[in-house]
Amino acid sequence: MKYGYARVSSQDQNLARQLQRLKEVGMDRIYEEKISGAINERPELMKVLKRLKPGDELYVIEMERLGRNNEYLTHIFMEVYLKGAKLVILDLPTFDDIDDANMRNFLRNIFIETKKFQAESERKRIRIRQRQGIELAKKRGVYKGRPILFGPDVKNQARRKTYFEIVEMLNAGQKVILTISILSYT
């Protein structure tokens, strides 16, 4: 089976470019999601990784679609390899024209390690630029921060109700353990 995986970082971004490229290559099934690459627990990626069997192929248009963390990327590569599947990154050279398999694998590994380093470095640069932008916005007085998701004044009734339930539990002396997946709220 040929599986494709497409990812963008946020809900307002578009998957069309990735989906088009994966369809051109001829996927049997494409998994797609809108979630940050900084988050290692991505449901659709986990689904396709669990589904892989020996001989299957997992396609992405570029390595950054899998993530930007070197250690996590290595984990994904190993998982695909240990399942006997093949990971195909469409924007990387294949080195298929090199007859010597050892040399071909050596060149692929060097290239992949270099790209993993670049992906993680770019993520760090993005965070630095983001922090710099926030600091400048604060100085201009236009930075508002992240929106408040739970509280007495939020418009979403379910979130407001959750807030008051938590306050009630805390006032009663109960311990509250709350797990929130912010990306699931729209």
UniProtKB/TrEMBL annotation:
Stored CDD domains: SR_ResInv
Domain Resolvase/invertase-type recombinase catalytic: 1-141
Pfam families: Resolvase
Alphabetical UniProt keywords: DNA integration, DNA recombination, DNA-binding
Active-site annotation: 9
GO MF assignments: DNA binding; DNA strand exchange activity
InterPro entries (UniProt xref): Recombinase_CS, Resolv_N, Resolvase-like_N_sf, SSR_resolvase
The keyword Glycoprotein is annotated on this UniProt entry: no
Coiled coil regions, renumbered to chain: none
GO BP, sorted A to Z: DNA integration
SUPFAM superfamilies hit by this protein: Resolvase-like
PANTHER family recorded: DNA-INVERTASE FROM LAMBDOID PROPHAGE, RESOLVASE HOMOLOG YNEB
Family: Belongs to the site-specific recombinase resolvase family.
Name of protein: Site-specific recombinase, DNA invertase Pin related proteins
Species this protein is from: Pediococcus pentosaceus (strain ATCC 25745 / CCUG 21536 / LMG 10740 / 183-1w)
